[in-house]
């Protein structure tokens, strides 16, 4: 093998040209932010032909007054092959240090001969490194890295992004939008997917294979299996965040070094295996893909998924990325310098959006990420993008930054475009009165584009459709949706509402008509045929469904990296055992293996432990030593291990890991109800055939509930299409059964006369029913159409 120092060389001409170009940007731009935006395009490790260029924003070097002679680009080349599919391996790396050039807070260099990673080969790794006055070395990792096989806390891999994008298989799809700057608009509906629980494989490659199989079956006109229908009938797929997330707080690290010299270092490499729901980001690495989601360790898998969706037969499916730039987990302090942050918040750290360099780098991360091939972007927690106005002595929402996010132009396969944008913004959340005072329109009213969307009031957190009076109590919000809901995401099932549902006290007034057990009640509440009819037929906006809810699979706060607060988090999640796990589910040998190994052989054993844990967390104010002591004093003794702080933490970790496996949708597929799947697919296709149903209500349209209430909530809706079609729905949302009623003789202006055809009936209403008198029960509904 060629020695690294013989293979690579410093390219002073390219380095000087890069530094001088960026210096010109900063000196001639009309604003500092404008200059930093131009510089940001040249940051990170990028490769063109045989020359790799590197740019870093390094204000911490100015803080420490580090001289130029103590700053280098560290290049690490593996000796032999690195197998990114192995769980553990020990690799020797050759090391070389490359000089850098500085321009105030920026460092630049260029190197010839470095090996760039591709789908078929692992490239060289790199980081900026500096030496302090005592001779100790410190690393600055690349926040704009495009490949992080060992996570955001490890050196990055130089990656040939151009080659990855050039090989994409959906160029023809993007070619149809060439000519000027194309603006993508909203789809008809969205399927929200958490990649690790969407398939048995739990990776992007596995999900891609699943959609490729569906595509083949649809193209061949094959009969669809029930589980196939779960994924069909959607115009867009929205992935929960696929960025690198937090790592294990107390280790092990995925990159562990030993026996290092100036020319080599031994590294123990672990394949990243954390479990996370996706929102615990560290900001560093946002431009690339979480290695946990990569079967091959190659970011190409995300491009492959985009291509399969865009090439789907009959109609392409849009890809939507969910991006998290409103906060960073506290671990972000390990990955980035302090200049990125503006102080702590309830999630970890606020970001310093008013710093021109930070602002520019965050937007550049977003641009590079969406260039993987997404036509839509959902912005998490937009109400958290704030800055401190020292003059007014208050926090203000950074709506200019949100507009900048929506203004970014993407470049994919020769096409320049602007994505469709969705903002989750519940301001004034977290103010105590947010549920009543939030308009859910703050971003819509401030942005320039007419097709900007927000999550609507039935889609935001804390919606509990399994509690009695829910629908009547939300009627005022539904009235708002009729008037201004055309630019809202609608539907009650998403990653947040389903999680919140599992945390509801068992003392609340649960709608027992939804099922005989808590699991049945929860499952049907978020996959309720009458709610689907309300969302897809009666209400404006763009409906979104969460895959786990539609599959009646479990879901919760899944995060196994915590050490300090892991026990507290599990205590808060403990009630979900009551909602999502019954005796039979717990007894299945494949389920909850770790907890059973710790001594919780039955669900009753674990349930009793979970009765104690939340109470002790509260009364001891989370004193782990005291919690462990008191758990060990319970009479009769609790099942489980001998209780120490370490063993209590082990139980918490086991719960998270077991629940992550338990939530996998593949476990639910054999038990899906074919009639429910057929209805859900039919109603999705009904909406797709009538895109006008997205529009707000017009003067002839009607929505109300039957009066008097008489112990039930029954909604009625009449809508008029531009082609003269009328759509009438009658939906029993909750409560006791109605008396015998005739749907088409209700006192609703516009439904008089004949010509109505029954288009859809919820499961439970037999095919023999076409019209006439009927008794409606909880979760039953009818959809009629008429052309006039």
Describe this structure in words.
- The protein has 29 helices and 32 strands.
- Strand 20 and strand 21 form a beta hairpin.
- The protein folds into four domains: 160 residues, Immunoglobulin-like (Sandwich); 218 residues, no CATH class; 97 residues, no CATH class; 96 residues, Immunoglobulin-like.
- The model has no long low-confidence stretch (mean pLDDT 97).
- It is of the alpha/beta class and 788 residues long.
- This is Putative glycoside hydrolase-like family 5 (GHL5) protein.
- One of its GO terms (molecular function) is hydrolase activity.
- InterPro entries: GH, GHL5.
- It comes from Litoreibacter ponti.
At a glance:
Keywords: Hydrolase. The chain is of the alpha/beta class and 788 residues long.
How many domains, in number, for the residues? 4
Mean pLDDT equals 97
Strand arrangement, largest sheet?
12-13-16-19-24-25-26-27
Find the structural class using helix and strand composition: alpha/beta
Keywords: Hydrolase
Organism: Litoreibacter ponti
GO molecular function, one term: hydrolase activity
InterPro entries: GH, GHL5
Topology:
Layout (H helix, E strand, L loop, with lengths): L3 H4 L1 E2 L1 H17 L3 H9 L3 E5 L2 E7 L1 H5 L7 E8 L9 E12 L1 E3 L2 E7 L12 E7 L5 E4 L15 E2 L3 H6 L4 H5 L5 E3 L6 E4 L1 H4 L5 H16 L6 H4 L6 E4 L15 E4 L5 E7 L29 H11 L7 E6 L8 H4 L5 E4 L4 E3 L4 H15 L5 E4 L6 E4 L4 E4 L1 H9 L2 E3 L2 E4 L1 E4 L10 H4 L4 H5 L6 E3 L14 H4 L1 H10 L3 E3 L4 H7 L16 H9 L2 H10 L3 E5 H4 L15 H8 L2 H5 L2 H5 L5 H5 L5 H17 L4 H9 L12 H18 L11 H15 L13 E4 L6 E9 L4 E11 L21 E5 L19 E7 L1
Parallel strand pairs: 11-23, 12-13, 12-27, 13-16, 16-19, 19-24, 24-25, 25-26, 26-27
Antiparallel strand pairs: 1-7, 2-3, 3-7, 4-5, 4-8, 5-15, 6-7, 8-9, 8-10, 14-15, 17-18, 20-21, 22-23, 28-29, 29-30, 30-32, 31-32
Helix pairs in contact: 2-3, 3-12, 8-10, 20-29, 22-26, 22-28, 26-27
